[in-house]
Batch of 3 targets.
Target 1
Amino acid sequence: KAGVTQTPRYLIKTRGQQVTLSCSPISGHRSVSWYQQTPGQGLQFLFEYFSETQRNKGNFPGRFSGRQFSNSRSEMNVSTLELGDSALYLCASSASQGRDIQYFGAGTRLSVL
Amino acid sequence: QKEVEQNSGPLSVPEGAIASLNCTYSDRGSQSFFWYRQYSGKSPELIMSIYSNGDKEDGRFTAQLNKASQYVSLLIRDSQPSDSATYLCAVAAYSGAGSYQLTFGKGTKLSVIP
C-alpha cells in the first residue's frame, strides 16, 4: 500500500510570492492534516480536512489556506510569502477524523528568500 | 488552548539502558495518545498508540498511560544507537462540532551513547 505522497519535496520562493503544496493520502484515508514544523516551534497544526470539509483550523493567518478534493487529495496554499514561512510542511492522513493514527508524508521543505 | 508538554532534553542514555520519556497534557477529556519518532531531516513515524489506562508493550517499547494524572510515558528497553532521535508525544482531544484534533508536544531528543 502506497504511503502519503507530498509534492514537491523542496521549494525555493521569494518574499511576496505564493506557493501551493500537494498531498496524496494513503488509499482509503479520508482525513488529511497539515502541519508546519520549525526548529523553535515544533509541529504546529495548520488545518484538517475530512470528506472535503475543513474540520479544524490552527492559529495561523489567513494567508494559509487549504482544500480537499473528492478523491481525498489535498492542497495547501500560502500567499504573500514571508521569510518566517520557511519551514518543513508535513501532511498526514488518517482513516477517519481526529482520533485515528496519522501517517506522515516525507514533507515539503520550503525556503523563502 | 490544549497543551502537550515534554522535556526537550537532550536525554542521554548508554547503550543497553532503559530510556524513559515523559509527556503531560492539559485536556482531561483527551482520548487517544501516540508516540512518534523523528530522525533528523525525516518525517515523524508512529512508534506506539495507546487509548486506555495502563501499559502497552510492543517489542522493546512500552507506553504507559495514566489519565487521572494526565500523563503518558514511553519506555525504551535495551536502547540502541539507532534509537537516537526526537520523540514526539501527540494527544487527540475533542475540539467541538464532533471533531477531534491532534496536538503534538515539542519533542524530547534522545541520544543513545555506544
Target 2
Amino acid sequence: NAGVTQTPKFRVLKTGQSMTLLCAQDMNHEYMYWYRQDPGMGLRLIHYSVGEGTTAKGEVPDGYNVSRLKKQNFLLGLESAAPSQTSVYFCASSLQGGQPQHFGDGTRLSIL
Amino acid sequence: SQQGEEDPQALSIQEGENATMNCSYKTSINNLQWYRQNSGRGLVHLILIRSNEREKHSGRLRVTLDTSKKSSSLLITASRAADTASYFCATDPYEGSGGGADGLTFGKGTHLIIQP
C-alpha cells in the first residue's frame, strides 16, 4: 500500500519556467491538499480539493494552479516559476475534512 | 495565517527523559492533532483529540487539551533517539469560527533532539 506518492522528489527550475507536481493516493480519500513548507514558517496550505472535479484556494494560492480530474490524483502547477516559490511541497490526503491527513515525502523545488 | 503555535521552538533532552511540547491556538476547534516529521520526510499523524476530550494516550504519548485556555500539550515519556524529529500541532477549526480554509491549520513546530 503506497499511500501518498509525490513526483518528482527534486527539481531545479529557472525563473519563468513552468512545471507540474504530481500527487497520487491509493486510499480512496475524498480530500487532498497541497502545502508548502519553508524554514520557520511551518506548513502553509496552497490549494485543496474536497472531491473529484473540485478545487479551492488555501492560505497562499497566488502563482499556483491545481486540478483534480481523477479522485486519486491532485496536480499542482506553476505557470511561471519565481525564486519565492523555492520550497518543499507536500501533498496530503484525508478521508474527510478535519480528519487525520496522510502525507507524501515531499518535492524539493529550487527556482534559480 | 497560523492557528497553532508550538512552544518551545526547540528542545534538547537526554535519552530516557520525558519531553513536553505545548500548543496554543486561537479559534474554537472540532479537534486537535499532533504530527511528527522526521528529517527529509513527510508528516506522520500521531494522535487526535476531540474538543470534548481532556486527555488521550497512545503508547508513550500523552496528549492533553484545555479548550478554556485554547492549549494542548504532548508528552513523550521515556524518550528514545528515534524520537528526534519535529512535532506539529494542527487544529480543525469549528465551522463558523473564522478559523480559515477547510481542513487543518498547522503550527510552526517544535524541533526535538534526543541526546544518546
Target 3
Amino acid sequence: EPEVTQTPSHQVTQMGQEVILRCVPISNHLYFYWYRQILGQKVEFLVSFYNNEISEKSEIFDDQFSVERPDGSNFTLKIRSTKLEDSAMYFCASRGLTSNTGELFFGEGSRLTVL
Amino acid sequence: AQSVTQLGSHVSVSEGALVLLRCNYSSSVPPYLFWYVQYPNQGLQLLLKYTSAATLVKGINGFEAEFKKSETSFHLTKPSAHMSDAAEYFCAVTHNQAGTALIFGKGTTLSVSS
C-alpha cells in the first residue's frame, strides 16, 4: 500500500541551527502538507503546497519556515534558525488530485528536539 | 472558519465497555469530518470519515461515528473496548475544496483497563 515516508525519524539540534525535514509523499498525490504536534498538544496545521507554491499557511508558519519540492518526489520543510519551542513532532501529509473527500495520508513523523 | 472541539481530553473505560469520544464541529459550509487515531510513537491513521453520504459511518477496528447536523456533532463510538484501543484520538474537519487543510481537535486520550 502506498505510504508517505519521512526522514529523519528523530533529529536533535542546537538552538539556532538550520534543520531540514524530508518527506516523500504518495507518488500520484499533488497536495502536500506539514503539520506539527508539540508534546501533549494537538496536531497543528503549518502549510499546504500545490503546483509548486504555498496554497495556505497558518500563523505558526513564519519567516523561519520554508517548504520546497526540489525534485519530483521530495517535499521538504526547512527551519532556518531553530528555537526551543520548535521542538515537536512534524508530520507530512499528502492528498490526491482526484480525492473528493479531503482525506490526508500522513507519514509517521519526524521528531525534532532543539537543545 | 472551521473548528473542532473534542470534549474530554482523557477518557477511561474498562475492557468490554462502551467507548464514546465526543466531537463537535463548527463550519460555515458542509463539512467533511474525520477521526484519526495515533498509537504511541506512531503517525496518524485514518479511522473513518464522513463525506456527505451515509450519516452513520463505520470504520476500522469496530469503530463507528454518526454525523448529526442538528447537533453539529460527530461522536465516535465502539460497543466494546479492547486493550489495543488505548491511543490518542483526533477529530478533524475540512470541506470539499482541493488543498484545504484538515483542522484537528485537541485530541482525546483513551485508556482501557482490564
